[in-house]
Design goal:
Alpha-Beta Plaits, 2 helices, 50% strand
Length: 103
């Protein structure tokens, strides 16, 4: 019996005060991690943006949106890795509805 593949989107915010190579390294780390566990559909690097409120006294973050499909147990592991990664300010993982999955 095969496990169901779900569609997800995740946004993570990297500390914009890091050097460009460090930011690129973090982004690449998560693109690789997601592609190993599932299929990356799209990656949008929104770049540096002002945060809605300060996080750890920082006012800017580097935003990245990733749309992907993976098995149902992967988002919990991804969230665990987000939480232990230095340089990451915030992250969220959202499961897309079946009817809105193509949007």
């Amino acid at each position: 019996m095969s496990e169901v593949i779900n569609k997800y989107e995740t946004i993570f915010v990297v500390d914009a005060s890091l050097e460009e190579e460090a930011i690129a390294g973090i982004v690449e780390k998560f693109k690789t991690l997601i592609s190993k566990a599932g299929e990356v559909e799209s990656v949008e690097e929104w770049g540096k943006r002002r945060l809605a409120y300060p996080i750890d006294f920082k006012t800017e973050g580097y935003y990245v949106l990733v749309n992907f499909s993976a098995k149902g147990d992967f988002p919990a592991e991804l969230d665990r890795i987000y939480n232990i990664t230095d340089g990451l300010l915030r992250s969220i993982i959202i499961k897309k509805d079946e009817k809105n999955a193509n949007a």
